Amino acid sequence: MDRVKTAVAGARAAYNLGKTRPLEFRLQQLRAMEKMLTERKDLFSEALQKDLHKNDFAVQIYEMAGIVGEITLALNKLHEWMEPEHVSKNMMTMMDTVYIQRQPLGVVLIIGAWNYPLALVLQPLVGAIAAGNAAVVKPSEVSGNTAQLLAQLLPQYLDKELYPVINGGVKEATELLSIRFDHILYTGNAAVGRIVMEAAAKHLTPVTLELGGKSPCYVDTDCDLDVACRRIAWGRYTNCGQTCIAPDYILCSENIQDQVVKKIVTAITEFYGNDPQKSPDYGRIVNQRHFQRIMSLLEGANVVYGGKNNVEDLYIAPTIVTDVDPDSRIMQEEIFGPVLPIVTVNGVDEAIAFISRRDKPLALYVFSHNKKLIQKMIRMTSSGGVTANDCLIHYSIAALPFGGVGKSGFGAYHGKHSFDTFSHRRACVLKSLGMEKANNIRYAPATDSKMKWLLWLLAKQGEGKKLQLIGFLILGTLVSIVMKFYFAW
């Protein structure tokens, strides 16, 4: 395990040299990552096809496009993000320079997930690089082909000392977590998230946990069911259901349940044909362990569509389950596979109550023509993100923070939010050594007069131009007094 400690020590030594601080260095590294994705696109496609049966479309749209978009945004905006953020002053600091300076945290650890093994490693890495950090990257060993390719290619394009890749399983991850980092971003399940958080606490290391949970999808009776079910089928069965923000279950009225099933089946057939196993667009379960886990969730379930499987091919057909007991195992665990339970409720209020009794999910979806109903669902529930009348789309918007709440995680990234996550917001006040007489009111000996003046000055904060005008008036008065005494001599 010496290689783990050596890699982390090397990253810290390189960071301490100040190599990551200049804007141009950060831009150069981001351009190099972009070049890697362009030049090695075919290799990444091959690795992802082997790991998860992803075709070129899935690789380009669901893996690479988001990374390239993040890089492009950072290249265009990084000079602005690095600029000091000037803030409001109080009367005590009216003549001073007051601002927030974003500084890199240091050496960070990024632990990726296996379901989108390229995007969930490189997207946070873009933010870490943009913010000026060194970053140790730990891809998921479950998607082994992609992990090995990252270990091979990243050192060829990025600074190999500042951005080392550590491959391996539990042993290597445990070794990494025993070392002090300045921030850890982990994407995965809640059980491992607790381990990460416990290890980080020993070093008082801040963490961003991107977990998951059971993301609900409420379908209102006042809804275009054809469109809604098509979009739900896309969100559920993309990547064979192995998406952390996929709709995990449907809530709908009993009187539209049969229509919902029928229309989702129609969409599945449209997307993947009569035999999804033969479709190049339909993925596979990542390994035997997850295959068996998903199949065990179907034990005793009322499967109304799908359920076919092939253990050798790691294939599970798109599946729909109805008459679901809310207390059954399939409704207690995140499914993370191509299985969609439907739970019936009597209207939006019962749906809200159902959602609110459970852990806060990473995403929430609501389909309705009724804008007031949508706003009520947003107002009365809590989730990491919410999308109305579609699925997954909020993930694609770089201006929105992506992250969970409660047991679905905390902290966020994407776009500038990634830059902020990996930055320290340093409070800065720059004063001169002149005008010392004006500071006498804060020095001992204390008097009632000094206290009154200080309380008044400290109370005058954040009033913009009005405060600035008062400051100049007071300054003018002080200058007049000084000039009067000067000429009197």
Q: Could you characterize the architecture of this molecule?
A:
The protein has 489 residues and is α/β, with parallel strands linked by helices. Helices cover 45% and strands 15% of the residues. The strands form four sheets. It has a seven-stranded mixed sheet with strand order 9-12-13-8-7-14-15, with helices on both faces. The longest helix has 26 residues, at 56-81.
Summarize the main sheet. 7 strands, mixed
Q: Roughly what fraction of the amino acids lie in strands?
A: 15-25%
Please give the number of β-strands: 17
Radius of gyration: 28 Å
Category from helices, strands and their pairing = alpha/beta
The whole-number mean of residue pLDDT values reads 93
Number of helices: 16
Q: Judging from the principal axes of the Cα atoms, what is the shape?
A: globular
How much helicity do the residues have?
40-55%
User: Runs with pLDDT <50, length 5+?
Assistant: 482-489
N-to-C span:
78 Å
**Order of strands across the widest beta sheet?**
9-12-13-8-7-14-15
What is this entry, summarized?
This protein has 16 helices and 17 strands. It has 489 residues and is of the alpha/beta class. The chain is globular.
